[in-house]
Every structure is written in C-alpha cells, then in structure tokens.
C-alpha cells in the first residue's frame, strides 16, 4: 500500500494549536457580515470594518445567501466569538447592528453617511498603510458619551467591550499602532467613527538630522558639505509635530528609530478609513429579538407595552407547546421503531427455529432413506445440519438416480 498524499487544501491550511493563550481566548472576537439588498458598497464597507476589528475577527469569512444568523451563532462558541456586526441594506437606507453573543443585547444604528477606506486613503497627502499595524488591536477613544440615559451607558459599554482592554501598567507601546475614535454629537444625536494609524516621531531634531536618524537618504544637491545640511533649519511639515501640546515623554524605548526612553516625541495620526456617521435607532434585549429597551422614533405607552408583552408570551407558549408535541412525536416514533425491530427479531428467531426443525427432519428422513436403500449407516457428516444449513446430498431424486438398484 502506498502512502496517502495530502490534498492541496490540506497543505494550504495551517494547523492551529488547540491550546491557545488565555489572553487570546478572553479577548472579544467578532463576526462582520452583511445582509439585505446586494450592492458593491455594502460588501466593501463590510471588508473595511473587518480591518478595524483586526486581528480578533474572521477576516476571510465567506458568507452565502443561504446562511442564517443561527449558523453563525452555532459556531460562535467554538471560535470564542463574542460580538456580531451586521451591515444591512433596505429600500430606506443602510443599517449597522451590533449584537452581543449569545443572548444580546442588540443595538441598531442607521448609517447616514460613510466613506470607504480606499477613498479616504487616496485623498490623503501622506499615507501610512501596511500589514504590520493590523497585527494588534486598536486603542478606543470615546468622546461625549457621558450623557444621561440608559442608552448612552449601554452604547458606550458596547463600543468598549468590542475591543480588548488595555492595562496601563503592563501595556507595550509598540503594540499600539492604531486607534478608533468615536465622537457623539448631542445636538444631532449622531456618532462619528474614525480610524487612524499612530506614528511616533522624535522631537528636538532638525529636518536633516531627523532624516539621518530615521535612516532616510538625504538630498545633498543644494549643500556644499555636510555642515550645511545639518545646520540649516528650514520650515517643514514637521513643525506641527514640534508643538508642545502634541509631545509626550516616552516611558520606554520604541522600536521606531529615534524614539528613546525619557525623550520627548510627537504623536501623528494618519487616517485609514472607513468613515461612518451613525445614529442609534433601537436597542433590543435579546439577539435581534426581544423586548425593545429604547427606540428613537417610536414611543410606546405602558398599556401598549403590556399588550406586546402578552402577545410575545402567547407566542412563546405556542412555540413551547409545538416543541413539546414534536418531542413527544419523535419519542413515539422511536418507540414504535424499537418495537418493530424487536418484533421483527422475535419473528426471525421463530422462523429460524422452525427452519432448523424442518431441516433436521429432512436430514433424518434422508438418513432413513439411505439406510433402506443402501443397507448401511450413512457417514456422520453426510446429513449433518450446521448453523441453520444442512449439508445436502443432492435430494432424493438425485439420490435414487445415483443408487438405483438393478
């Protein structure tokens, strides 16, 4: 036998160790999918939002139309998925649903405006996009979320719990490469979402020295010698970085060049996209279902809430009764199937016993006929019955032809 060869898909798939670190298991994971009417923009927006949720999200998740929400929920526990982000499109507009798995709550936002990542990056003068910055989760910055109301606290906690927590005492500054900024406007009740890449540059250096420190090739065409290049201090776009309000003192050395411990460095942001303008419309108690805890447009009275609760309770009872009936029917079918199997087994046993008796009687008749015709006792194994079968000599007619007396 030859050695079985692995297929192409098996070779491409990387074997993941089942024993994952506790920090990775406890980190919030997410599914980002889209539903509703098809369109290129909603598909690209879904992919861009997955970039925000990196690295604890299913980046290459392939969804089909026949996949339901229950399909994703059923595998969420195995993959440690704690949140589900659903982009949907209707005739009215686009919506974003943020659900906490497995039992909710669910927040529904209406998307008023959005800009894809490709448009944001193409419009930027300077770009900073590479795969290294997506290997760590972003820093979350919330602004003006301290308003009154249960929906404000729930909304703020939902955005915070979608990303891993950061311990200020043990955090490594080299892992903070991105930030997600959420600003709430109390007048318009809208939320502006922005996604930035963070760059740290050293301060107190001239433009020429900064290029040398950052291992860049300087342009010496306008200089007579190195002294002219190092001593001149032209005005550049780095002057904005030298603003004292943007400077910080680094607690330890960073991996980027020139950023040493206890030295002043400037923080610079490069927008990555996408941009989203959201408005909270509804909060449901369960996952895409349940009691409506908050609604921006529709307001129910206490009588209407009680009526809705009664209807929901009635539907729940009907559903439980239907499940109970299905369970009883299934048990009855299994019981009938077992009885049929037992009855068939008993019938087959009785038939086998009768058949053995009949064959034994036939064997005895054949042996008696042999004695009468030949006048000798037959061999012991000539007409012996074994395991429900009798060793046949060929039947009486064939026996008569073979031992026919003259």
UniProtKB/TrEMBL annotation:
Protein name, UniProt field: Ppan protein
Disordered, as annotated region: 234-256, 323-406
An example Gene Ontology molecular-function term: rRNA binding
PANTHER family: PETER PAN-RELATED, SUPPRESSOR OF SWI4 1 HOMOLOG
InterPro entries, per the entry: Brix, PPAN-like
GO CC, one annotated term: preribosome, large subunit precursor
SMART domains listed in its UniProt record: Brix
Superkingdom classification of source: Eukaryota
Record field: compositional bias (Basic residues): 388-406
Gene name of this polypeptide: ppan
Gene Ontology biological process: ribosomal large subunit assembly; rRNA processing
Domain Brix: 28-289
Comp. bias intervals (Basic and acidic residues): 326-373
A Pfam short name: Brix
Lineage start: Eukaryota, Metazoa, Ecdysozoa, Arthropoda, Hexapoda
Native source organism of the sequence: Fopius arisanus
